[in-house]
Amino acid sequence: AQKITQTQPGMFVQEKEAVTLDCTYDTSDPSYGLFWYKQPSSGEMIFLIYQGSYDQQNATEGRYSLNFQKARKSANLVISASQLGDSAMYFCAMRDRNFNKFYFGSGTKLNVKP
Amino acid sequence: DTEVTQTPKHLVMGMTNKKSLKCEQHMGHRAMYWYKQKAKKPPELMFVYSYEKLSINESVPSRFSPECPNSSLLNLHLHALQPEDSALYLCASSQASGGLSSYNSPLHFGNGTRLTVT
């Protein structure tokens, strides 16, 4: 069963505007972590932000924030004030407690327009 | 600077060659991973080592052979590969599962090896 769903294969955003990348997940484990990664065309996978299932507040890291809605099982990434360097693939991932396994979504290709 | 180092960055090999990919981490992590990634796709898990023991093998063909000599090093030995094995190979590390909050620990990736099989 698919654990992570990213429904937006590609998105465009104007420079300096905010953008939301969608991610929904499925797990029966009460303890889990949700992660977002950025992959530029150069190939490296860059860890951006993390949200734990017990965290009461939405995670923030600089221009990145995670809109965590536990009841809806969604963990959307919000990028504020988009920059040209934000153009990349973005992957949502989940890890549950008992296994050394991460589940990745299919990714969203973000293009920032000048 | 990445704390997970992969070498080489690029590799071109023939179908009869034997080569190895190397990965080193200095983050004190006890879980290490090999992923294969095709263009515009998410990473596909190949192998996981936990405390230097192979814990997950995702039915990878035997022409790929992993090795974990110690807690910091992870190798992937390649032999008799096919052109369809051309891909980006990513190494990663994380805290091993089983700890109180191990699910909090993200994957930390190396920069990858771009492999072309001719």
State which percent range the strand residues of chain B make up: over 45%
SSE topology string of chain A: EEEEEEEEEEEE
| β-strand amount of chain A | over 45%
Shape, principal axes of CA atoms of chain B: globular
Mean pLDDT of chain A: 94
Most strands sheet of chain A: 6 strands, mixed
| SS-based class of chain A | mainly beta
What does this structure look like?
The complex is a heterodimer of chains A (114) and B (118). Helices cover 0% and strands 52% of the residues of chain A. Chain A has no helices and twelve strands. Chain A has strands at 4-5, 10-14, 19-21, 24-25, 32-39, 46-52, 60-61, 64-69, 74-79, 88-96, 102-104, 108-113. In chain A, the strands form three sheets. In chain A, strands 2, 5, 6, 10, 11 and 12 form a six-stranded mixed β-sheet that branches. Chain B has 118 residues and is mainly β. In chain B, 0% of the residues lie in helices and 54% in strands. Chain B is built from no helices and eleven strands. In chain B, a hairpin with a 6-residue loop joins strand 4 and strand 5. Chain B is globular, with a radius of gyration of 14 Å.
